[in-house]
Amino acid sequence: MYICIEQLGIAPQHQNKFIMRANLFIHKEVLEILLTNGTSFVPNKNEAKDVFIERVSAEVEAEYLEKIDLKEVDETSIKKVGSKQLLARLNNAKGVANDLIRYVLIKRGALATPVAPKEAPKGKKFKPEEEAPEVIEIDYTDYTKEELIDFVKALKARPVKTTKQKYTLDEVNEHTAAAKPNVGKKCSFVAYGSAERLAGTINGVWVDKRVPMALYRIRLEDGSMKNKIVLTNEIEIFEPTAEELAAKAKPAEKKAKKVAKVEEKPTVAEVDAEWEPTDMKTTIITKEA
């Protein structure tokens, strides 16, 4: 049995003290009533809005002996509130209120759109450095059963690709020694992680002892440096042309001439051997009194 506050004999001027304030949140035909004390109500399945409000009002009056003062909150009323206030309310809002505030903030661009987590693809997963298995399409109508069996046997007999071969540090040092004559030569290579082909000059060879592995240190035309594995087929090294060899030879010739000039100068012993006393001139300076 429900008891109304009028039945308790409370005077009308004091009845405002016995009012339970509540909000009716409406978002995309989803309803929720939230009381100021934190209690929430949701409609039953296929329950109309008016019936839902009437039921909640009766339950509140019976439970708290208070009339319900209901205020509807929908998208139109939420839009009148500033984004800063809505963001502050979002931390404590729950249920339909949270969905409604979040919806308005996303439409304003004040909140990022939530991204649903992607489901992991079924089947085998391949790492970025791994290659997907080769797929060969066959028109089976063009072959007999025996030919197809032979074809499958030939596929199974193919060499399987292995992972990168690991070398010992001694072997890597040998690779480094063999690659040192290429220092100073121009080259063209594929940059790591892309299909772009770059041009540069081999500036040196070094060893990455963590792997271990020998690598070229290549200076590009813009002055930046890149590394490239010595034992790779993605680098093309060019032999110097006759003009480049001649240009390199000129500084060497100049240096050789300077050395020759120095060698042509007589030594101190040779000068002493040729010196005679008559070569020395004496100058006497007298001081006037």
Number of helices: 8
Beta-strand content estimate: 15-25%
Question: Segments where pLDDT lies below 50 for 5+ residues?
Answer: 1-16
* Strand line-up of the largest beta sheet: 8-7-6-5-9
Give the integer mean of the pLDDT values.
75
Cα distance spanning the termini: 148 Å
* Outline type: elongated
Provide the succession of SSEs.
EEEHEHHHHHEEEEEHH
Radius of gyration, in Å, reads: 46 Å
For the biggest sheet, the summary is: 5 strands, antiparallel
Structural class: alpha+beta
In total, the number of strands is 9
The helicity comes to 25-40%
What does this structure look like?
There is one protein chain. The chain has a 5-stranded antiparallel sheet with strand order 8-7-6-5-9. β2 (30-35) and β3 form a beta hairpin. α3 packs antiparallel against α4 (95-108). It has 289 residues and is an alpha+beta fold. The protein has 8 helices and 9 strands. It has helices spanning 49-64, 75-78, 83-90, 95-108, 145-156, 169-179, 242-264, 268-274, and strands spanning 19-27, 30-35, 40-41, 67-73, 186-190, 197-208, 213-220, 225-229, 235-237.
Summarize the structure.
This protein has 289 residues and is α+β, with helices and mostly antiparallel strands. It is built from 8 helices and 9 strands.
Topology:
Layout: E1 19-27, E2 30-35, E3 40-41, H1 49-64, E4 67-73, H2 75-78, H3 83-90, H4 95-108, H5 145-156, H6 169-179, E5 186-190, E6 197-208, E7 213-220, E8 225-229, E9 235-237, H7 242-264, H8 268-274
Parallel strand pairs: 1-4
Antiparallel strand pairs: 1-2, 2-3, 5-6, 5-9, 6-7, 7-8
